[in-house]
Amino acid sequence: MPIDIGISESDRAAIAAGLSKLLADTYTLYLKTHNYHWNVTGPMFNTLHLMFETQYTELALAVDLIAERIRALGHPAPGSYKAYAALTEIPEEDDAPDAEEMIRRLVAGQETVVRTARSVFPLVEEAHDQPSADLLTQRMQVHEKNAWMLRSLLGS
């Protein structure tokens, strides 16, 4: 059955492609944050362990919201590591950074997600896609706040 929600197929496809990048960045950041939760050590262990848990839990919920918006636009949501690796701007790691480096990398990841969300915003505004605009606004708020909180741990 055709989708008739007042947004053209070409606009829905472009928005879904942008949201797919956001989904990939969000899932990659989720995985990185969960990894750091498991592997953080040092004098800030308890603070970081709990902070990372709060953040990865929120990210796990966010990926579902983003994927469901892509589906509501009539497009498949990417759902594999291979797809995420091709779409994300967040680098994969294979080292074991210390706690301070974990924080720096998570700040960079949070800011990457913000930039990705912001890059999709002109598409949704032009298409008058308020539900996607709302989703993007909420994601930017969360990630900007998380980046600020993480940067504060570094004293900057």
From TrEMBL:
One of its GO terms (molecular function) is ferric iron binding. InterPro entries: DPS_DNA-bd (IPR002177), DPS_DNA-bd_CS (IPR023188), Ferritin-like (IPR012347), Ferritin-like_SF (IPR009078), Ferritin_DPS_dom (IPR008331). Residues 17-155 form the Ferritin/DPS domain. It holds the Pfam family Ferritin. It comes from the Bacteria. Belongs to the Dps family. This is DNA starvation/stationary phase protection protein. The lineage of its organism: Bacteria, Pseudomonadati, Pseudomonadota, Gammaproteobacteria, Chromatiales.
